[in-house]
């Protein structure tokens, strides 16, 4: 996966295609919001109206997040160190997660129905981000994906720093990893939701790693055939999701190898930049607002529009007032080399920096 110096610098056109992944992330975030407000929410709270089954497709936004994460994490590991990668991931994931966690817990405790809330103990356990693996309820249902992502980051870092993701070893490593995942899909009972979710979703991250290899010119048959093998593994447990996932992967490769398809437009770049805070904040706070609007007799489409707009505005506020400034400050303090100027954040991206190739890591 490492490149020679001659190949490391991508052309502006290629950089634009990679930057288009941010636009895809923005679409994925809106898709998940739509699924929660139109399908999942009404299923949990009938007063929100009849579930819109067409919104089920919005769940595939999560799969798209996973594919993009596989691509970008594999890219961000290059030139990094174990400590630098770990610190950069902590900076990117945890501060805004803790803010979203506290905000969601308080809003639900003050204004939400009792069935939506969790105990103080459960909320404190959520600080770790691995509460699902401990059998502890999530403060927000959407948080289940964060533990899956975290486990992927750890596994990918171990493989990278252990030398298992070099170009020569990449196919062997990925097929072995996929084989273990296949065994896990078959063996782990579906009742063990978190571990079952890991087994069923890790192939999407692997597909993202392969997307990077193909994007950079790797045309070995073992690499080109891997996405089919990974999607086939998913199909054993989730046939319908595998079909949608195949379409998502094809779209990602179309963008990476051909053209951005309009995904670099300002609205989508904006949504991509705020997608992580939006993901963290939208579900239960949105449900509380939707329930309030419903109790006031507000027309359902208008209630969904108002709630979505409010959550986007809240995510943008959190991004610009808290997330970005805090990350900058922590990077200067924890990642800048001794004697480095405080303006390092505005200079060229350092190895392992989330801004590599124009992509802002959302997760």
Describe this structure in words.
The protein has 14 helices and no strands. Helix content is 68%, strand content 0%. With 363 residues, it is mostly helical. It has helices at 5-8, 12-44, 60-76, 82-111, 120-125, 144-161, 170-187, 193-215, 221-224, 226-237, 239-257, 266-273, 275-295, 300-334. It has one domain (11-358). This is Acyltransferase. One of its GO terms (biological process) is lipopolysaccharide biosynthetic process. Keywords: Acyltransferase, Membrane, Transferase, Transmembrane, Transmembrane helix. InterPro entries: Acyl_transf_3_dom (IPR002656), Acyltransferase_3 (IPR050879).
Approximate helicity band: 55-70%
Note the main sheet.
none
Mean of residue pLDDT values: 88
- Share of residues in strands: under 5%
Number of domains: 1
Structural class: mainly alpha
Regions with little confidence, pLDDT below 50 for 5+ residues? 2-8, 338-363
Pfam families: Acyl_transf_3
Region (Disordered): 341-363
Transmembrane segments: 20-38, 50-75, 96-121, 141-161, 173-189, 195-215, 222-237, 243-258, 270-290, 302-322
GO molecular function: acyltransferase activity, transferring groups other than amino-acyl groups
Any descriptors?
14 helices; disordered N terminus; disordered C terminus; mainly alpha; 363 residues
Q: Gist?
A:
With 363 residues, the protein is mainly α.
Produce the secondary structure layout.
Layout: H1 5-8, H2 12-44, H3 60-76, H4 82-111, H5 120-125, H6 144-161, H7 170-187, H8 193-215, H9 221-224, H10 226-237, H11 239-257, H12 266-273, H13 275-295, H14 300-334
Helix pairs in contact: 2-3, 2-11, 2-12, 2-13, 3-6, 3-8, 3-11, 4-13, 4-14, 6-8, 7-8, 7-10, 8-10, 8-11, 10-11, 13-14
């Amino acid at each position: 996966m490492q490149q020679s110096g001659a190949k490391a610098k991508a052309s502006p056109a290629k950089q634009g295609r990679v930057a288009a992944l941010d636009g895809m992330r923005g679409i994925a975030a809106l898709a998940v919001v739509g699924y929660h407000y139109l399908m999942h929410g009404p299923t949990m709270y009938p007063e929100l109206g009849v579930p819109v089954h067409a919104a089920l497709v919005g769940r595939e936004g999560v799969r798209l997040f996973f594919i993009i994460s596989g691509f970008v994490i594999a890219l961000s590991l290059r030139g990094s160190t174990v400590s630098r990668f770990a610190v950069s991931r902590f900076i990117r994931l945890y501060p805004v997660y803790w803010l979203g966690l506290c905000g969601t817990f308080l809003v639900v405790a003050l204004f939400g129905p009792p069935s939506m809330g969790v105990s103080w103990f459960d909320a404190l356990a959520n600080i770790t981000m691995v509460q699902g693996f401990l059998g502890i309820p999530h403060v927000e249902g959407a948080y289940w994906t964060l533990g899956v992502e975290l486990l992927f980051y750890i596994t990918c870092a171990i493989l990278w720093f252990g030398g298992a993701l070099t170009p020569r070893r990449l196919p062997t490593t990925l097929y072995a990893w996929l084989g273990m995942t296949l065994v896990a899909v078959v063996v782990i009972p579906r009742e063990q939701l978190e571990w079952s979710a890991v087994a069923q979703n890790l192939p999407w991250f692997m597909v993202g790693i392969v997307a990077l290899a193909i994007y950079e010119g790797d045309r070995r048959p073992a690499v080109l055939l891997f996405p089919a093998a990974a999607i086939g593994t998913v199909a054993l447990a989730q046939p319908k999701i595998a079909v949608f996932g195949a379409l998502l992967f094809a779209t990602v490769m179309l963008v990476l190898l051909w053209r951005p398809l309009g995904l670099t437009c300002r609205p989508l770049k904006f949504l991509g930049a705020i997608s992580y805070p939006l993901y963290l904040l939208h579900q239960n706070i949105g449900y509380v607002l939707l329930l309030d609007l419903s109790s006031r007799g507000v027309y359902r489409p208008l209630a969904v529009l108002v709630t979505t707009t409010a959550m986007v505005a809240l995510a943008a506020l959190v991004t610009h007032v808290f997330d970005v400034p805090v990350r900058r400050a922590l990077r200067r303090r924890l990642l800048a080399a001794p004697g480095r100027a405080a303006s390092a954040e505005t200079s060229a991206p350092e190895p392992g920096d989330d801004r590599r190739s124009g992509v802002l890591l959302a997760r």
